[in-house]
Every structure is written in structure tokens, then in C-alpha cells.
Amino acid sequence: MDTRQTTPRPKPVTSGSDTRPPRALRRPVLIDVGDEASTLLEEPEWTSGDRNSRTLAMTERLRIVLTALRAGAELSSEESNDTLAVHALRGDLELRVDGLDLELQAGQLAAVEEPREWRVRAATDALLLLTVGIGTVEVRR
Length: 141
Description:
Helix content is 10%, strand content 40%. By secondary structure, the protein is mostly beta strands.
């Protein structure tokens, strides 16, 4: 029996920030990731902080987020307990899933195919794409 349920989410609109206004995420979406990364890395959240993120695409069941992390900064399943893919674009990342440690370098992609506890840590300043399959399945511990 399939016990997964989806929770209605608001229309796909980014929340914006102090340096950029909210924007609608219309489909289909064609994104120049290089341009988005350049803009992301120029914003004050990055120049004076340990991370910066921008939602590139979002639907009721999928979210793609471009994230810059300073060395030592982390993301974890506290922010999302859904299935995901982590694609290292620049720098080195450490991904921990169910006690298994993976090292990702630029160009490598790792997938967490079922909801699990996970943590991504930047070993160096890094840029990554986080693709999250949104659902309400509980994390297996």
C-alpha cells in the first residue's frame, strides 16, 4: 500500500532576498547555470557569509537549488528529508548518507534514492546543484 501523500505547495515563486526580488518560476525553464552562479557569488550573502542559495526551478514535486558553500559549511536532512541528487559543480564536497561517506569532486553527482538522513559538507569552497524530489515519506533511520 502506497502511504505517500503530497502536501499542496504554494505557486512556484522564489522568496527573493535583500538583493533580488521574488520571481515566478515558469515552465518550461531554461537556465544558464553559469550566469546564475556568477550572480550568486557576487551577492552579499556569499561575500560576507558561509553560504548562498537560489532556487532555479520548482514544481509541486521537484526543487532545483543552486548553492554556494564556504569550506566547512553544511546542509542536512533537517532542511529536506526527501530523495535528492547532489551535483558538485566546483570544489569538493563530502556527502554522508546512512553512515556511508562519499567524496564528490567537481563534475560528480550522487543520488539519495530513498528518503534518508543525509549531510553535505563543503571540504573546500564549493558550488553545487541540489535537486530534491519533494514528498512526505518519513526518513528511514
